[in-house]
């Protein structure tokens, strides 16, 4: 890759006229180096941070390992489903005290695939937890790490059930937003706004009830979601500007013409506050922020959501989701173990 500090091509700093523009040889758009190895390095680093911090928080290292295993099984469900549907740049990242998530990219997203991916996280954990709970109920005295199967089963079920709640960005909230709501509509934005309010209220309620400082950490979710909403609004205005310029964004980044890359880049420099300090082209020079610019341009390229779930399919997905939520009551589980978490 070329040195980012060296110009790719020296040209006049004035805007080219349409006649001259055709004669310009545009340098290639920015391409980041393959960082697949770095993704897994960051994944293991995040897991190490998760375990180290958890060691000082959890009363028992056995409980820490158990919860880590539950989280790992949950995320591996998402991971293998995304891998099956050929998502790119896959990685599992742990957030100390909060959980984990799987990241991946794909331009054409199917509703059916999304439903399978979202349910592939919590459902296996609920099934495993239900089996362990039933084993203990029919033949008590089974332990793992000196923890009875009943408690392990309850932990599996409850932690995964929480993920099925219809609150964005939990799996249940994403399922509702992707399958039952048009995620590009105002209804979707209202739903996300309500989710932000629900998460903030939960954190406040937890603090007033328990006085735990952990509630402030939970506020990270609504804060990040608010920032994302503001960012999406900013990008929508940039999208409109790009459309007025007649630039086609209905394609993959690899298909984007070099000329259009530099044109979009200039528009972003004018419209996006994060790139105000980046010089416009020409001259055509990569900036130290070029990878962030490239990532933002990639997010502007239209993602296709394939509407391939029929009404019968939506009913089936709803029933599976509802059964997962109702699993503790369907199995008549004793929930008194969690009574101290009465928020």
List keywords for this structure.
13 helices; two-stranded parallel ribbon; disordered N terminus; two-stranded antiparallel sheet; 343 residues; mainly alpha; 59% helix; elongated
Written description of the protein model:
It is built from 13 helices and six strands. It has helices spanning 18-21, 36-57, 61-84, 111-119, 122-138, 149-163, 171-180, 186-210, 214-218, 220-244, 258-271, 290-300, 311-330, and strands spanning 88-95, 99-105, 108-110, 143-144, 147-148, 304-306. Strands 1-2 form a two-stranded antiparallel ribbon. A two-stranded parallel ribbon has the order 3-6. The chain has a two-stranded antiparallel ribbon with strand order 4-5. A hairpin with a 3-residue loop joins strand 1 (88-95) and strand 2. The longest helix has 25 residues, at 186-210. The chain starts with 17 loop residues before the first helix and ends in a 13-residue tail after the last helix.
Question: Could you give the topology of this structure?
Answer:
Blueprint: H1 18-21, H2 36-57, H3 61-84, E1 88-95, E2 99-105, E3 108-110, H4 111-119, H5 122-138, E4 143-144, E5 147-148, H6 149-163, H7 171-180, H8 186-210, H9 214-218, H10 220-244, H11 258-271, H12 290-300, E6 304-306, H13 311-330
Parallel strand pairs: 3-6
Antiparallel strand pairs: 1-2, 4-5
Helix pairs in contact: 3-4, 3-5, 3-6, 4-7, 5-6, 6-13, 8-10, 10-11
